[in-house]
Specification:
The protein is α+β, with helices and mostly antiparallel strands. Helices cover about 40% and strands about 35% of the residues. It contains 3 helices and 6 strands.
Length: about 120
């Protein structure tokens, strides 16, 4: 996956990188249609190649969509991504920290929903 600052993913322009993990990378981006900042999670090529991980990603997107006000969009033009509300800190390091906290909370919510608790 080659994503650089200024590149476009669907209607989203990449502004900076927030972090990366086992499933992909998270970028700060701008929705050019609505002129708002968002967090854009892109899946790696390795993840895209595995149908079970794509299914997991789609379930994650559905759960995120149920979290009112946080989830904006999912996948365009054959690319696999999810777009969520971006934190509004003063610097990128603060954004990365806030994003990690939000993602950790979502993981706990996902675990609870999957286990039926």
């Amino acid at each position: 996956m080659s994503t650089s600052i200024g590149s476009r993913i669907g209607p989203y322009e990449v502004v900076g990188k927030l972090g990366e993990g086992g499933m992909g990378e998270v970028f700060r981006a701008r929705d050019v249609r609505l002129n708002r900042e968002v967090a854009l999670k892109l899946l790696t090529e390795a993840v895209i190649a595995e149908p079970d991980r794509i299914a997991r990603f789609q379930r994650e997107a559905q759960v995120l969509a149920s979290l009112v006000g946080r989830f904006y969009d999912v996948s365009h033009d054959g690319q696999r991504f999810v777009v969520i509300k971006s934190p509004a800190p003063k610097d990128l390091a603060g954004a990365a920290q806030q994003t990690l906290v939000v993602v950790a909370n979502w993981i706990e919510e996902l675990k609870a929903r999957v286990s039926g608790k």
